[in-house]
Amino acid sequence: MILYFDPFMGMAGDMTVAALVDAGAAPETVNGALRRLGLGGLAFRFQKVLRQGLSATSGRVELPAEHGHRGLSSILSLIEGAGLPAAVSDLACEAFRRLGEAEAKVHGVDVETVHFHEVGAADAIADIVGACAAWEALGGPEVECGPMNLGSGFTTMEHGTFPVPPPAVVEILKGVPVFSAGAPLERTTPTGAALAVTLARRFGPLPRGRIAGVGYGAGSHDSEGAPNVLRALLVAEEPADGAVAVIETQVDDTSPELLAGALEAIRAQGALDLFLTPVVAKKGRPGCLVTLLCGVGEESRFADLLLEHTSTTGVRFTRWERRELPREVVSVATPRGPVRVKRITAPSGARRSHIEWEDLRALSEGTGVPALLLLQELETFLK
Question: What pTM does this model have?
Answer without folding.
Answer: 0.66
